[in-house]
User: Fold this.
Amino acid sequence: MRRLERFSVQGSNALWQIYQTVSFFKVLKNTCIILLGRMIPWMAMKRWLYRVFLRMEIGEQTAFAFMVMLDLLYPERIKIGKNTIIGYNTTILTHEYLIDEYRLGHVVIGDQVMIGANTTILPGVTIGDHAVIGAGTVVSKDVEPYQFVVGNPMQIIKKKG
Assistant:
């Protein structure tokens, strides 16, 4: 079950009203930092950039592969444990903008989690310690510790341990 905060909007769609909900300058700064981080091959530098400039909580030895896309609006809502791998071209979202509302949710990823390439993690989910997320998965609900999940819709393949 995703844990989301919901905010109604009136008039035009929620995305059209984006700068009434988040500062343009915050989004500009986040965009520059995230684009730089996506290209840097130095894992420790990425982690430092994200912790210092985006206020993300990231554990020691966590590695972001090339082209990982973090939420541009609310990256500070992402918390990642230690010794975790975020695979190539993965997207981690903490917001959803719809026609008449927008939703925000924290994303919590545990310790020693393996996230395969091209995965999308939706707002409001928790991924437990030692979980494995197969490549191309859309993580649309919580993943328990030691679970192996894959696909869209996400399905549990097995639970280790």
About this structure: The longest strand covers residues 155-159. The CA atoms of residues 60 and 82 lie 5 Å apart. The radius of gyration is 16 Å.
